[in-house]
Every structure is written in structure tokens, then in C-alpha cells.
Amino acid sequence: MGLFLIAFLWLLSFAPLQGMAAPYAAMVIDARTGEVLHSRNADTRLHPASLTKMMTLYIAFEAVRNGEITLDTPVRITKKASSEPPSKLGLRTGQTIAFRYLIRAAAVKSANDAATAIGIALSGSEAAFARRMTRTAKSMGMSRTTFKNAHGLTESGHLSTARDMTTLGRHLLYDYPQYYNLFSRQSTHAGIKTVPNTNRRLLAAYKGADGIKTGYTRAAGFNLVASAKRKDERIIATVFGGKSGASRNAKVAELLDMGFRRAPSRAPIRKPARPSYAGNAGLGATVAALTIAPKSSLRPVLRPGPGAAVQVAGTVAETAAKNGTRIKDGIAAAIAAADIQPSNEGDAPRPAARPDDLVLASTDPAAQPEPEQEIVTRLSTSGGRLWGVNVGRYTTRYEAEKILLKTALSEMTTLEGTLRKVNQSSRGFDATFQGMTREQADLACRRLQARNVTCFMIGPS
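User: That's the sequence. What structure does it adopt?
Assistant: C-alpha cells below.
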């Protein structure tokens, strides 16, 4: 009788735990085309756990690209961020840490405190950031996803699907390839310590695996979005509701194998369209209090109407080049001649998505074209400022001069006092502004790229 009672009580306690096992869902796609190769319960809304941080990181990359923040911006850690439960980096209330280290910790360590700090730094509060996350998800086509926090710990209404998370993984891969290597690092230095990758076992065991993100909570089970590349083929596989880390990894490996078997050896790469960028409209100065404010604004300044600027540039570029006109004086004369009125910032066109940020953001002097002949449009007064920016290569010197003046008209604040130079080579005419500090060049490029102007930094020769 005693043994029967013990067995009965054990069943009563164990059965609910079995019933609480997280539901299973899976999705496999050919990353090149987005074609679905396998799905099971792919549209069931489930707890994403730390897969959530893929969206936190996506918005962090988006914010850097659009000039909201830089990788080196020091972020002040709030009590909310520092008090998040593990997994965590170990941030302390009131300390400051570079934004890049928060990204590393969230991507590699899956640190909850770092993820929350990213959200608060960008949107002023975690709730506001969660709303931004959901807006971005909807814009990507993640129609069954709602975010309530930046880290993925279980919260009512914080739900996603295997299909939506697979979509997000594909966007990370193609929209921000310059950051994708973060997800394949076995470990990384995160400012205060070196942290290991939560996905290191699959990365080490599966041929071609190079990301993306793990997740676990009791309600979610063991989740994983994984990507692997073999020759010209790339597969993304997602699993929700694994019973353990080992069984989840084994299932993901099985799904990746299935994907490689089913995918064609050759297929065109059809990159997904980037989601619309809305930033933090309406937040006002809330965000500024949570970061160490830069000395100059990261937002684009008011600029002349584009039609007038083009016309003026076409008529005065050659004269300015011949006479060595100073940019400041040339701009004043051009504005007076055309009677250009600045447009409202709200009327500015939204930056179009561009797939070549990695090239444009390069600051490696070796990656820039070697000039064979240099044409200088005015005398240098750089005073030791050895950095510059390149705003494109053109087939004629006139075209290069015209774009220089047009760019100077639209970005007077950061380009005032720089040297306007055309570098000629066998490949064309490079339009450049020189005589800048590294910080000025970086800021100028970010502001220009936010307006969809081709720009990359030029380092000291």
C-alpha cells in the first residue's frame, strides 16, 4: 500500500511536467531564394526565448547604419538593465560601456543585461524598444510575432513562430553581412571579460555552420535558428521546443542535412527587401539621457531642395574648380544665386535600403582606389587633418566636381572647411572631401549614407 501511494504521488507530480513540455515546431529554407524546404507547426505562436535577441541585434545594426548611435558610443547602464537575470555579462548600474561590447555580449553570450541596455539606449525604455521591435517585425513580414522585451525571457504576449524567426535570421544574414561573423565566433571580448558562444557546440560539430542564435526558457524549451554554408548552397533551419541542448542540436543537424539534400546545387540569390526604417520618431530627447551625448548631432541637418541643388551644381562646378573656390564661399554664392530655401526635415526622403554597406563603410586605406593622377581643386589647409571621405567614382571630372558641390550644399555643417578634391586614375574620377579628423569623416559618412549617398572613409596615406 505504501509503495502504491508513493508511485501515485510521483505520477501526480511528474505528469504536469510532461504536460508542460514546450510544443515542437520547425522550419527549413534555402537561404538563397527563401524557398521553404520543410515545415512543421511553423505558424504556431510560441515562446521564442533568446531568439528574441536576433531582433534586438538587427535594430542595433540598423541604428548604427542610420547614424542613431556609433559602435564606440559609451552607453550608461541603468538599474533595469543591470538587474536582469542570467545569462548576463555582469553590468553594473551607472557604469558606461561602448555600444559594440553590448552587441558582442548579446550576440555571443546571449546576455540579458546587454540586450536590455541596447534597447534602453536606443529607445529610452524597454517598452518603447519592444514596440519598435514589433514594428520592424511586421515590416519584415513577421506577421505572427509580438515582442514585449529585448531579451526573450518569458512574458505574456511575447510570442513568435518558427517561420517568423527563420525570416529574421535570413534578414540578419543578407541585410547586415558585415556583422554576421559575430554569430560564428567561439568567444569574444565584451569589454569587461571574454565570453563564450552559447552555440559553440553546433558550430564546432556541424560542417559549414556559422550561426545564428540559441534560446532557452522553461516555457520555450531549447530553441535554435542555425545557418550553414557548403559551396554555393546555404540553408537556414529553425527548431522550437527541443527537449535538451544536445537533442536540439541533433535535430537541427538533421534538418540542415535535409535542406542540403533538397536544395538545388545552384540557385540565384534573391535577397529579401529591407524593412522600412522609422527610427524612434516622437521620442524627443529621452534617448540622449541614456547615452553620453556627442558634441555634434548625429541627425542630418536641414538641406536645400534637391532640384535646385542639382541645377546650381551643374552651373558652378567648373568655375569653382578653376578658381579654387573655398567650399564655404562657393556654397554661399550658389545659394544666393538659386534662392534655395532649406526644406523641412520631415519632408526629407526616407533612405533607401542598400546592400553594399560593407563596402561603403570600409575604413581600410588598402581597400580604396590607388590614384594615378591627382587633381586638387583648391590649396590644402588641412592643418594635419589626414582623413577624408569618397562620395563616388565618375567617368568625367565634371561629373565628379558636380557631385562634390551638390554634396557640399546638402551637408554644409560637417563638410565646411574641407578640401574638395578629384583623384583621377585609369578607372575614373574619384570625388573626395579631405582635410578631416577621423571622427569628422566617420560622422560625415554616416550622415551622407543616411541620405542614400555613396560614401566611404579614406584613411591617412
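Residues 393 and 430 are 4 Å apart (CA to CA).
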